[in-house]
Amino acid sequence: MGGFEMTSNSASTFVRFKGVEKSYDGLKTVVKRLDLDVFRGEFLTLLGPSGSGKTTSLMMLAGFETPTQGHIFLDGNAIENVPAHRRGIGMVFQNYALFPHMSVTENMAFPLQVRGMGRHEIEARVKKALEMVRLGDLAKRFPAQLSGGQQQRIALARALIFEPKLVLMDEPLGALDKQLREQMQLEIRRLHRELGLTVVFVTHDQAEALTLSDRIAIFNDGVIQQIDTPQALYERPANAFVATFMGDTNVLPGVLTSLNTQQCQVRLDLGEQMFARATPGLTSGNRTSLSIRSERVILDGDERYDSRLPGFIEECIYLGDHVRIRLNVSGNNDFNVKVPIAQMQPHWREGHRLPVCWHSADASALDAMSA
Question: Looking at the predicted structure, is the pLDDT value of residue 323 above 60?
Fold first, then answer.
């Protein structure tokens, strides 16, 4: 297996990608110099748009794709030359991958039979796994007799039944409706915590990643843009791509006019001078993007807010618990504010002018080159 071992200073690291690249045609590199550690017992989500390299990275870890370059370690051993079925990894797919001609019990028993396990041990494990996902009463049914959520729970239990070292999930909830997705998210969180699993999860759904993850790695164009806790990614994005991909943010272009370690000043393109938190990689005099989350913006705020710009309401959209108000602010006619229903004012209608306000500490100046 190459004779590679991880160094002693990474004892908590369970999975490591080291200098991993992948190209299918020798021309375009879909994963570029990937260096990534997954810690034992961690729930790590690979998040990004279609074609960003997240699923390819998961498939290389699973053994369904081979790296063009670099090494992948599992529990200290290089595995890029180990066949998928010998890696001891559980997999959960979006399409469930259940055998339609087998009952739930037979589907669950199959991976144990392949490993040569005895009948009594198989029966005990199947019963335990079905109880784990609360579906013990459906053991004799076939996949076609189950709902989408039930099928996915069976697929999850089947991936866990042989007690794998690592569980990989590739968009496992993508085929479910919103309510079922949210129920399954809670189920996956429960199992992760109760069983102490190490999970690598792929999704393009930002809310799902925020709900489930200990850490999130955001991919774009084959490169991790930032890896951190959900709160840190949302509150302190490293660049404009992360800010706009993670949640709803407003971006106002400008030039960085002054900079220190904590705060900087930005001159927007229409001349307004604004203050914001500084982020790494900024240089005074360069182009920047002022980023402010839509829920941090206050309409017609008082003097407590040190940042203020005139706004013109273009559109109001009712969304149940809040109203999404789209304004023209400093030349950006797609500046959005989320207003809770209880705070909505009768005169806030299309065509109305009013100031938009926020605390400068809630705004970030980001590297415009990464947008």
Answer: yes
**Are residues 210 and 284 both part of a single domain?**
no
Mean of all residue pLDDT scores within the chain:
90
Give the span between the Cα atoms of 72 and 105, in whole angstroms. 34
Separation CA 302–CA 103 (nearest Å):
64
Q: 64 lies in a domain?
A: yes
346 contacts: CB under 8 Å, gap ≥ 6: none
CATH code for the domain of 71 = 3.40.50.300
- CB-based contacts of 205, cutoff 8 Å, min separation 6: 173, 174
Whole-number Å distance between alpha carbons of 366 and 238: 7
pTM: predicted TM-score of the whole model, two decimal places: 0.88
